[in-house]
Amino acid sequence: MSNIMEKLELTAQSMYCKKIEELTPSELHLSLGKAVMGEIADNWEASKAKHNSERRAYYFSAEFLMGRMMYNNLYCLGILDDVKKMLKKKGVDINVFEDIDDAALGNGGLGRLAACYLDSAATMEVPLDGYGIRYKYGLFKQLIKDGYQVEVADDWQRFDDPWCLRREDEAVTVSFKGQTVKAVPYDMAVIGCKTTNINTLRLWQAEAINEFDFQAFNNTEYNRAVQEKNDAENITKVLYPNDNKYEGKVLRLKQQYFFCSASLQDIMRRYKAKHGNDFSFFAKENAIQLNDTHPVCSIPELVRLLMNEGMNFDEAFEIARKTCAYTNHTVLGEALEKWHADLMMQVIPEIYHIICLIANKLQEELTAKGISEDMKAKMRIVDANTVHMARLATYAGTYVNGVAKLHTEILKDDVLKEWYQVYPERFQNKTNGITQRRWLGLCNPELAALITEKVGSDNWLIDLSLLSKLNDCIDAKTITKFNTIKKKKKVQLAEYIKKMDGVEINPDSIYDIQVKRLHEYKRQLLNAFSIMTIYFRIKEGKLPNWTPTTFIFGAKAAPGYARAKAIIKYINEIADLVNNDPDTKDKLKVVFISNYNVSYAEKIVVAADLSEQTSTAGLEASGTGNMKFMLNGALTLGTYDGANIEIAECAGEENEYIFGARVEDIERLKKEGYDPKKLYEANPEIKKVVDTLIDGTFDDDGAQGEGSFAELHNALINGTSWQEADHYFHIYDLPLYVETKIRANKDYANRKEFGKKCLINIANAGKFSSDRAIVEYAKDIWHTSYRKV
Ligand code: AZC
């Protein structure tokens, strides 16, 4: 420990000629980061050597949503409190690191899951390293202006990046048709908890081979002089800001191929250093997990690299097939990647050629198995000039997994139905998880201390199943302690919201929170409608015993997603109305916080009473926010969907607020012919609420029935040429949802009973640790070693 402070002093001195107390926050961040990196260097080297001597796995992901690293790293090293004290002695408040931006190299659930998995693998001593992209600009920052989302570039590296080591010596080249670039690795240490194990996240940055063309410069062609540099750097310039939506752009395909090729070359180099040109051990020593289809061009790329080593196609294919496994994260059609063959041919023709060979091989294999022509047609990897990446991944890999029980069932019965019929042994479920280090230990030290007291040790940090011990100590005293902690976290969140968004909220009100990406299927609009319903009822005196409630929203919309943006504006219009109406302003408060990200989430999930998880049944693959809320004692107000189902199974449905149509109901409604217009016309309360989109209640920027609110209204009631009315079943679920919300509101008044439910949720959250999930991957898919706790 004193070691760290000495190192810090030296770093501050040598880098800035300053004493610790004189450093600016960003200088302190860099110096302390460097000091920590120095401290862990030996363990990191030792871990690398160990992983290199055994079977190991790699997590390939276009996104790693790491969040802020400083607190987490100090926490996992077990020195956060000490560093805090030592800094305090120097008159420095450790909260200065709140000025440092998150590393937001991901969009939402999929990227954050990758980050939780790296954390868990390090702690569970699974030899797993991550491979991804070092975007210059991460996910945009969100401002809210006049109720609208405004996007600003996220230049996260402006604080420098002490956690990454640039490894120039291990750079490789990646070629596209007509362009060859350098891929430079940056290594980030992923520090385990209560272990000396440290894993690595290697992120690739694209750079030019020749940065500057002097000839062109001399000819006064200044743009051409730097053209190669710009063209290369553009590849890793920015993260595509889409969540659950595929964008078939050349640059995106380049990003994917770029990091896959670089990572595979890296793995091959390491392998060759051990075994030379004998590739017979490759699949025995390496497992590659493909995080969604974004890295699926790894399969043909691995085949290509092996063929370059002298292997024939069939041999190379067998190795690739035994090495790769694929995780699916969504059933939404618009998110399933399908690349246009022409585009692929234009960018990576050799890869396209290999995909065609794989596609033919599949057809031969299916013929040999006696599969019908009809089914074979449905399984084509290349069909009508389109490459189906999920099919490629399912065929050319060991396993395919869904991310919650229901989701895996839907893959088997629907999305990948034919595949399940032919290759049933390949399908697995791996319900998602979250790391309890960041999502409880670090963000809720007060609750963590209570848990440690009750469990008898802090071993829950590495074995979350120990939480079940809490089941035996849910007494009046513990409930009171829990309620006191919750109140404290609510006060802290109120202060933070005041500071960040300038809005005052009442910590004695219920905090009913929905934070996640904005998407129609997640149904933030349903939540908005429920608030309007309650607003009208309060005004009519129909809810005399309503406990004051603060509805908190946080959500980024993809910049090109017009409806999502309209929903943000609509929520902000509701906030304006209910927060200022004298009849309701003490009973309802609506806040749309801006720039929801990992660091904001750490303050939010700890303060929630109700966790809104309102997706249309069958559409949210799992959800992981739901788990973060549960672990911190919020009750789920949600549909029977994704991991909500398993949450309710673990904690008991009587301890959650589950509402609405289930998958079977949705199927039935679709079959019968769902008619939202009829429901809307028959129910004056629904009509009044939905019509606030068009009746002048709200200002859609003077659009008066012609703008984005009217478009939302029309999509709900009439549908469009490309989508049936109310595709996401808002109108059907609204009355059920409102009644459930009112029931939760009533229940909250009984503080003891409600607190008891919260504690039961915490006690039964053990399953949702990403430690459990990562060990399942290690056992069932990768067959690597792991820690026995
Ligand atoms: C998300 C799913 O929507 C979410 O339900 C799941 O919890 C999460 O992955 C982790 O598995 N999917 C995505 O973020 N998908 C894309 C393509 O962005």
From TrEMBL:
Give the catalysed reaction(s), semicolon-separated: [(1->4)-alpha-D-glucosyl](n) + phosphate = [(1->4)-alpha-D-glucosyl](n-1) + alpha-D-glucose 1-phosphate
Matches recorded under SUPFAM superfamilies: UDP-Glycosyltransferase/glycogen phosphorylase
Cofactor dependence is on: pyridoxal 5'-phosphate
Q: Which domain of life is it from?
A: Bacteria
UniProt cross-references to PROSITE patterns, sorted A to Z:
PHOSPHORYLASE
Its EC number(s):
2.4.1.1
Q: Write down a Pfam family by its short name.
A: Phosphorylase
InterPro entries linked: Glycg_phsphrylas, Glyco_trans_35, Pyridoxal_P_attach_site
Tell me which UniProt keywords the record has, alphabetically: Carbohydrate metabolism, Glycosyltransferase, Pyridoxal phosphate, Transferase
Entry-linked NCBIfam families: P_ylase
This chain's function reads: Allosteric enzyme that catalyzes the rate-limiting step in glycogen catabolism, the phosphorolytic cleavage of glycogen to produce glucose-1-phosphate, and plays a central role in maintaining cellular and organismal glucose homeostasis.
- Say which family it is in: Belongs to the glycogen phosphorylase family.
Please name the PANTHER family in this protein's record: GLYCOGEN PHOSPHORYLASE, GLYCOGEN PHOSPHORYLASE, LIVER FORM
Q: What protein name does the entry list?
A: Alpha-1,4 glucan phosphorylase
Annotated organism of origin: Ruminococcus intestinalis
